[in-house]
Write a structure and sequence with these properties.
single chain; about 90 residues; alpha+beta; two-stranded antiparallel sheet; 4 strands; about 30% helix; binds zinc ion
Length: about 90
């Protein structure tokens, strides 16, 4: 993850309009207007949330309405879960 001042941390393409906290993690990132409208969050944060919760079925239902941004398009929960299954995190154990 790289943070670039003035650029949206979700899509890494548009200018940010502000910084806000993630609703599911104690950190803040920059958002552009489109990502806020899409209710999109950084992909890494949603993948990390799935890890922290112990799997996609353990994540609160309201998060399933959130999106992420990958390869130029907004992706929905089902696609985020598929990415998580395809690229499991490196275990700290
Ligand atoms: Zn954005």
């Amino acid at each position: 993850m790289a943070f670039t001042q003035g650029i949206c941390d979700v899509c890494d393409r548009d200018r940010e309009i502000g910084v806000a906290s993630l609703p599911f993690a104690p950190m803040s990132v920059a958002f552009c207007r489109e990502c806020l409208t899409q209710r999109a969050y950084p992909l890494w944060s949603l993948l990390g949330l799935i890890d922290m919760c112990g799997g996609p079925d353990e994540v609160a239902a309201w998060v399933h309405d959130c999106k992420a941004f990958k390869a130029g398009v907004y992706i929905e929960w089902e696609a985020i879960v598929r990415l998580h299954q395809a690229e499991p995190p490196v275990s700290g154990n």
